[in-house]
Amino acid sequence: MTVAVPLSLIEAFDELARTPDARLIQGGTDLMVEINFNHVKPVDVIALRRIKELRTWQVNSNNTITIGSGVPYQEMEVGQLKELLPALAEAARTVGSPQIRAAGTLGGNLGTCSPAGDGLPVLFALDAIVHLQSLKSSRDLSIHEFMLGVKRNARHTNEIITGVTVPVLDGWQGYAKVGVRNAMVISVASACLAVDKKNNSVRIALGAVGPTIIRCRDAESWLVQQLDLTSATSIDTTIAQEFGRRVALESKPIDDHRSTAEYRRHAVGVLAQRLITRAYTS
After folding, report:
1. Beta-carbon contacts of residue 32 (< 8 Å; ≥ 6 apart)
2. What radius of gyration do the chain's Cα atoms show?
3. Mean pLDDT by 10-residue block, N- to C-terminus, for the chain (282 residues)?
4. Structural domain ending residue among the three candidates 112, 133, 167
5. Choosing a second label site near 74 at 20 to 30 A (CA), which of 27, 132, 222, 235?
6. Which domain holds residue 257?
7. 3-state DSSP call for residue 112?
8. Domain with 221 in it: what CATH number?
């Protein structure tokens, strides 16, 4: 097992050309768990953590934010990122321990592409664009095209995930998840809800209840017909409950060692109801 630690993207591409089968990591928090539990054997690694250009973020002139793939969750919990992307801040706070949040990144979540990844429902709800770069070219993919299935994505073997771009929405947004304990837990079910007042729309994305993150577009469309999202200050309990029921119907959970499909379906319905109620509590 070799570990390469490039200091720039150019160096990283050189290492990737030399060892095309190497595992790209940021904080390594997913890989080390897999190795410790003997789910994968030790492999050659290219650690991107010291590439400074991946550890920055910026607010763009078109009211979007580009976040480098190496920005740690710890940085998303506070300051301007928290103010502009509160759902991402809430998701970041649920990621492991402080030590994990200091190492873990959105780039790592995207690279692993587990449907239980805490950052991914936020990216789906915000219709994020994923930036990919190779030595000779770059391309941008919608998050909906990027994540293909359980731990499968559209990254080419010669590409590095350099960051994501998300819009700054005018409207409430939040994230919630259910686990077997209150902290340091993989999601049994999760949900992110974001209101876009400018376009009179609502987005809700579910994690850990399907082979990939699920956008509940039928429930979104139904709610827009029931509620003026731009001016409402409260929501009727029956509408919130029905929204939760419709969200649950769009989930595709399975039974596994962490939970049952029945419980997961119930959980996302409750989470959706709670999130929309929080969004419209006057």
Report:
1. none
2. 19
3. 94 95 90 78 90 98 98 96 98 92 95 94 98 97 96 96 98 94 85 96 97 97 95 95 98 91 97 97 74
4. 167
5. 132
6. 173-279
7. helix
8. 3.30.390.50
